[in-house]
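STRUCTURE:
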């Protein structure tokens, strides 16, 4: 019987390793490990100054204004590609705005197709103002990217998509918007996945260590993926719960044989 329970305990540890491996995402990425990522001062300054550039498949809200009369400073909108009022901080309207084509262009009245990919919002505004000046006196153009977001998955209370409304966000703000971490969340290894998913860059953040927080960067960029892993003990508990019913069945089958062995051993000789 002791041998049986020893095998059971060993199996739980073995299965917990399998469960942990099955549950965790973004494993075995070349060049990535679980060490806290270090960001030097130069890289951090670049992230502070970062401005997102328009890319194909983005959606843009474009509004064109003109003066209402000669000498008047009042501007009237003559074109609004979408409702420029955002639908709140907790949602993104996937159909709002003009879709940037794979060629990086948008098609607008009067000026036709104009390339906007590779420009920031401010740069795109200047490009469109220059084009509209060919047809309109003193135009003013506002450009806003409406689908900037950060994807949050894993052990947070409300996983999903968080809109980026201030240009940049930090990890603490994003976690707060998702209802904070669950009790099963690992605070020591939160992953930020950035860039092309064929060649992603992984950043590991340890929220429990003040020194590591100072030496890294928690600034996020649009389209980043924040992944909060479960604690290792959570995988062990899951494996234990999955394994126990099997061994209960085996134990029930073997119990008569074990009892018979005990009776025979206790019988007088």
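SEQUENCE:
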């Amino acid at each position: 019987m002791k041998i049986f329970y020893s095998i059971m305990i060993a199996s739980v540890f073995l299965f917990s390793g399998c469960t942990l491996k099955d549950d965790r995402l973004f494993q075995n990425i070349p060049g990535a490990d679980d060490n806290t990522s270090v960001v030097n001062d130069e890289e951090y300054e670049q992230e502070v100054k970062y401005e997102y550039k328009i890319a194909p498949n983005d959606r843009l809200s474009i509004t064109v204004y003109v003066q209402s009369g000669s000498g008047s400073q009042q501007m009237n909108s003559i074109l609004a590609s979408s409702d420029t009022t955002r639908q709140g901080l907790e949602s993104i309207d996937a159909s709002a705005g003009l879709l940037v084509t794979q060629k990086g262009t948008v098609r607008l009245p009067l000026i036709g197709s104009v390339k906007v990919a590779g420009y920031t919002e401010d740069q795109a505004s200047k490009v469109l103002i220059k084009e509209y000046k060919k047809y309109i006196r003193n135009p003013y153009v506002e450009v806003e990217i409406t689908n900037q977001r950060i994807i949050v998955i894993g052990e947070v209370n409300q996983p999903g998509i968080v809109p980026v409304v201030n240009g940049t966000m930090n990890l603490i703000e994003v976690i707060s918007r998702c209802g904070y971490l669950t009790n099963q969340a690992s605070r020591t290894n939160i992953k930020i996945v950035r860039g092309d998913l064929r060649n992603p860059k992984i950043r590991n953040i340890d929220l429990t260590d003040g020194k590591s927080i100072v030496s890294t960067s928690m600034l996020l960029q649009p389209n980043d993926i924040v992944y909060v892993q479960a604690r290792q003990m959570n995988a062990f508990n899951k494996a234990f719960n999955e394994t126990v019913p099997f061994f209960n069945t085996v134990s029930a089958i073997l119990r008569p044989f074990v009892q018979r062995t005990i009776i025979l051993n206790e019988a007088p000789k």
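REMARK: The chain has a mean pLDDT of 79.
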